[in-house]
C-alpha cells in the first residue's frame, strides 16, 4: 500500500495494487489481458500507476505479439547482442533505419516483414550472408570485422568460399548484361551513322574472321 493522489477524493490517499482482467482491442485483435491498477482505500476508485503509466500498454502489446507469433522486444535485443552489435550496426545490416530498430526494441510492434528479417538473423550462417553481401558491395572493413565475429558464433564454420559458386554465377550474369549493353550501343552507333548519311560498313564476326554483310550509302537523309 502506498500514497497516491486520488482524482475522486482530490487528495493523497492510500492505494493497493489491483489486477483486473479486461478485453482490449489491439489493431485487428480482441485480447483478454490482465491490467494493473491502484485502488483507492477511501473511494475504491481505480487509477493507473502514475509512476508507470505505460505498464498496461506494454502488457497489451506483448499479448498481441504472442498472438501473432512476433518476437518480443527483449528477443530482438537478444539477437543483436548475440552478434555484439550496436543498434546502428544491426539496423544497417538488416536494411532498416536506426530509429525503427530503436522503436522495436523500445516496445513498438514490428511489421511482419521486419519480424521475418529478425527471425532470419537468428541463424548465424544466414546473417553472415547478409553481412557478406554488404562487404562485397562496399569493401568496407567494418563488415569484414563483423564477418569474423559471426563466423565464431556457436562454432559455425563459415567462410567466404561458401558463396563462391553463387558469386561466379552472378559474374556470368553481369558479363551477359554487359555484352547485351555493348551490342545495343554498337547498333545504336550504326543507326546514328546511317541516319547522318555516312558510308557505313557493318561486320559480323564468324570465329576469328570478320565478314562484311552490308555496305552502301544510307537510304535515310536528315
TrEMBL record:
The terms under GO molecular function for this entry are: DNA binding
Which SUPFAM superfamilies is this protein grouped with? lambda repressor-like DNA-binding domains
The protein's name in its UniProt record: HTH cro/C1-type domain-containing protein
Q: Which residues form the HTH cro/C1-type domain?
A: 76-107
What InterPro entries does its record include? Cro/C1-type_HTH (IPR001387), Lambda_DNA-bd_dom_sf (IPR010982), MqsA (IPR022452)
